[in-house]
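User: Here's a structure from my thesis project, written as structure tokens. My advisor, Dr. K., wants to see whether a designed sequence matches the one we expressed. Can you design one independently, without my sequence as a hint?
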């Protein structure tokens, strides 16, 4: 935390607002581990929310879809563990400064965006 503060001070900048998109771990796991991508054309799918017409096959080019190694459950759980240890403590810091704004991220993307805009609107200048 001090490193960020020092860097910002050196640049004569400061954090005015910190946005936190709160998503339960179970939802994050489902979202990330369900992603599939096409190694040929780069198209991205999700097994539950945006599946291809034919399971495991890219709609655009017909290549076999893959799950990225870093989207596997074991890797995602480790990433969450690292987040809780190294990044989550910033939430308490920003909350104590009165600059933390939280939005429920377990809703549809357009609703998350709306809630973030509302949160930004509550920032006093």
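Assistant: Designed independently from the structure alone:
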């Amino acid at each position: 935390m001090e490193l960020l503060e020092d860097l910002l001070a050196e640049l004569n900048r400061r954090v005015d607002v910190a946005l936190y998109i709160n998503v339960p771990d179970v939802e994050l796991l489902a979202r990330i581990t369900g992603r599939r991508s096409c190694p040929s054309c780069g198209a991205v799918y999700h097994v539950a929310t945006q599946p291809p017409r034919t399971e495991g096959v890219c709609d655009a080019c017909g290549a076999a879809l893959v799950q990225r190694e870093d989207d596997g459950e074991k890797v995602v759980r480790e990433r969450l563990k690292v987040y809780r240890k190294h990044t989550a403590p910033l939430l308490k810091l920003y909350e104590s400064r009165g600059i933390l704004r939280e939005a429920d991220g377990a809703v549809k993307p357009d609703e998350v965006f709306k809630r973030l805009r509302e949160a930004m609107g509550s920032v006093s200048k």
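When you compare it with your expressed construct, this may help: The helical segments are 2-10, 25-33, 73-86, 89-96, 109-121.
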